[in-house]
Amino acid sequence: METIGRINSEAKKWIEEIHVQKWALAHDGGHRYRIMTTNLSEVFNSVLKGVRCLPIIALVQLTFYRINSYFAVRHQLGMQRAKSGKNCTPFVDGKSSSNGIKTGRHEVVLFNRATGIFRIKTGSSIANRSKGGNVQVVKLKEHSCSCQKWQIFGFPCSHVMAACQYCSLDYKVFVQNWYSITTYKMTWDPVFHPIPDRAYWPLARETTFLPSGSMKRKAKSRPRSTRFRNEMDIREGHITVTFGCCK
């Protein structure tokens, strides 16, 4: 915060007026688990990519079928993982696999087996020998590691996995329930129902509104888009600068 203040005092003042629980991961009470951006809305935006300029009926239909596919595919994946005996989401399995590689290079010293206190010294990286040699303190009973990754992400870091390996414990018991395959399936459980042919629709009881004739399109071609471009439309590394004389 002090660094921000030295660069821009107004920015520091603006941030300080916002409660830390609203923007600091360290003070969110463990509710977000590594989520620091609006990526969820960006994911939804990517699902609907290319539908913005479609006619309203086509837009609604494509939105409906794409979201249905999104849910159906992931629910099926959850069912397959459950049948194969996998207890965690694909994301956690991937992270645990990469952490497991680091675990073999850690030096583990037991301090108290009853409370699960360990001293973990990280080994040097194969790719970068200058890294490593850091000391972390793991407390299994308190579900904490001094690196803070376990508390922030909700699943064991490589230091915790090394401690579990030392004690012959399954590290997956320390993964938060939100990453369980049961929760994963429940997330994608809602079912979308097919829309029958219009001939089978029930009669509408609502008042029928007729659009004004003055609002009807005069030209047959697609109208010119009036959407304003923003930072979401600018690809990193592909910024084009146009000068007035070039237009």
Automatic annotation (TrEMBL):
Superkingdom = Eukaryota
Q: Name one Pfam family in it.
A: SWIM
Q: Locate the SWIM-type domain: which residues?
A: 136-168
SMART domains (UniProt xref)? ZnF_PMZ
GO MF terms held by the record = zinc ion binding
Q: Which residues form a coiled coil?
A: none
Q: Does the keyword Zinc apply?
A: yes
> Which UniProt keywords are listed?
Metal-binding, Zinc, Zinc-finger
On whether Zinc-finger is a keyword of this UniProt record, the answer is yes
**Record-linked InterPro entries:** Znf_PMZ, Znf_SWIM
Protein name as catalogued: SWIM-type domain-containing protein
Q: What is the originating organism of this protein?
A: Buddleja alternifolia
